[in-house]
Amino acid sequence: MDLRNLIRWNRDRNVPAVHHREDDHPVFALHREMNRLFDDFFRSFDLPARFGASLGWPNIELSESDNEIKVIAELPGLEQKDVDVSLANDVLTIRGEKKGSSAGAVYSERWQGTFQRSVQISPDADPDRVTADFRNGVLTVTIAKRPDAPNRVRRIPVNG
């Protein structure tokens, strides 16, 4: 038997494969309703929808050089007034609220609500020299290191 005959779209190249819409199949409808059910349930706890993929929101990038620590957070759809940044006890906290309106929407995957993301930073950071810049939905927090920070590293000999 020719294996190409088992694949329906290869039997006759002139006849297109039948395409079914997702709405036509009851399994897709069930999948969509289960997603909506879980989203509604976790939304009642003020957690981001789709909890497995979204608990770390906003997404951040942390980099460190000899002179500074830089934290970049992606905050699409937010404005500067919706974001609060604080630094206490070597923990940088970004919090805020994403407001939106889903009035009249039959289905929505857009997330809205409060959020908070905390990041432990190096104790070398100088809490008195912190700047934050918000442009095009990207928050950049730059924290200068203390001038004596490199001197605070103490090498410990390892005996073998």
UniProtKB/TrEMBL annotation:
Transmembrane parts of this sequence: none
Pfam families for the chain: HSP20
Domain SHSP: 51-160
Keywords noted in UniProt: Stress response
Coiled coil: none
UniProt record similarity statement: Belongs to the small heat shock protein (HSP20) family.
PANTHER family membership: HEAT-SHOCK PROTEIN 20 FAMILY MEMBER (PTHR11527)
Name the record gives this protein: Heat shock protein Hsp20
The organism of origin for this protein: Caballeronia catudaia
